[in-house]
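Re: the request from the purification team.
They wanted to know what the chain is likely to look like in 3D before they choose a buffer screen. I agreed to run a prediction and write the result into the notebook, where they can find it.
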Amino acid sequence: MRSASPPATESAAAEPASVPNPDITARAAIRQAALELFAEHGVASVSVRDIAKRAGVSPALLFHHYGTKDGLREAVDEWITQNTAVAVAQAEQDLPDDIEDLFTARFRVFAAIAHTRPKECAYIARSISEGDEAAQKLFDGMIAKTIEELGALQRRGLIAPDEDETARALLLLFLQLGPLLLQSLVEQHVGTPVFGQESVDRWVRSCARLLTSGLAAEQ
């Protein structure tokens, strides 16, 4: 069992999307165990003792770090949101001001996360499908972050202003979350893994072109 002594400070910076996050403190181990169990069984079916056992700690240490199971779930959601935002920013920071390249990089980040950290994606899909209050808060956070990111692109002159920022952000989220939420159906239809290289190349390219060039033929 892990010691209840104060853990080392967690790094605030997320690793690139293609590399698993390396922090292994007791606090992080508890959070990761919760994420995995929530993804496998759903939040309601997982007990504090289940999480503590998976993490190799005592229930008391879990309560020390997170207070309650709800507090732990909130920490899981915040960690996922923050890690994804940092990964997107890292992917975009060295690119030239080409909007198709930026959207391509963004979609590839989500594909890389789905490929290398499938438990996170399974948790997101399950949480959103359950649609409880915490899931709504997670989704609302995604919308807020997407509005912020698109606003930054607009201020750089890379995308046009839109009088409905929420609708614009929702459209981008639909494209990002669609492969995750519809994964099994899409794979049966196309016959290849959604997050395999062939499929990723297809939908990343198509999404980036849709957002930058639209569907209408040139007149």
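For the purification team: Residues 62 and 152 are 38 Å apart (CA to CA).
Please add any questions underneath this entry.
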